[in-house]
Specification:
Length: about 240
């Protein structure tokens, strides 16, 4: 089998992670078609894009046409990209759906200038994300998750016994919430161990209860703790 066709994450089953190139492919399609819609004045394209996003979000990646094209045609040819948490790009799609629906509604009620402005906003942000990797919707997700975590679940202490970690040993250690398919998680673990840290990894796929308890909105998330579990420093997430 061609090594390029090998996958560490199944795109249709491992829904908590995604090939990082897939959202950028999707953003290219959305941005390009939104720009065509605004430039040509054929606004139903915006409505079709909104419908496609809604179908993909509600029924899965098999019903997302750009996703299917990427996973069935592009990924097998060029190989799997870095695997990342799927929640930020999913939230970005929800934001895109909302703005595209608003743009279509504006055209329908006779406000083409507003519809064009909203359609152009989607085009600019989607193409920016596709070209540079800066995803405004993903950034909003991370910011919102961080603010929610600070507001409702400020992490000052980890219950080491609950995490399956023997407490009482002297010195500091790192507790890292990770996912086994996450590329950034694997890189973080390698870097921490290379730096001489004692690292305990918590698989959020196996322990979603702990992820919820400690407000792990994006992986990897890691804390330096002392022997009692008191958080000394948040070093990732």
């Amino acid at each position: 089998m061609n090594r390029r066709s090998l996958r560490t994450a199944d795109p249709y089953r491992d829904l908590d992670v995604i090939d990082a190139r897939a959202p950028r492919f999707n953003q290219t399609a959305i941005g390009t078609l939104s720009l065509v819609a605004v430039a040509s004045g054929w606004w139903p394209i915006l409505a079709l894009l909104a419908a496609q996003l809604a179908i993909g979000l509600n029924f899965g990646r098999r019903w997302c046409l750009p996703c299917v094209v990427y996973f069935e045609l592009v990924q097998p040819r060029f190989g799997e990209g870095p695997i990342e948490d799927s929640r930020p790009p999913r939230f970005a799609n929800q934001v895109g759906l909302t703005v595209l629906a608003a743009a279509s509604g504006a055209y329908l009620v006779g406000a083409p200038a507003l519809g064009a402005a909203l359609g152009l906003l989607v085009a600019i942000l989607a193409l920016l994300a596709a070209a540079t990797g800066f995803c405004a919707g993903c950034w909003l997700y991370r910011l919102g998750a961080r603010l929610r975590g600070i507001a409702s679940r400020r992490v000052d202490e980890l219950a080491l016994a609950e995490l399956g970690i023997s407490d009482g040993a002297p010195g500091e250690r790192v507790v890292a919430f990770t996912h086994p398919l996450c590329t950034d998680c694997r890189d973080l673990m390698v870097d921490l161990r290379a730096a001489g840290h004692q690292v305990n990894a918590i698989d959020v796929r196996e322990r979603p209860d702990l992820a919820r308890k400690y407000g792990v909105a994006v992986v990897p998330m890691a804390f330096t703790v002392d022997h009692s579990g008191a958080v000394l420093l948040r070093i990732a997430g």
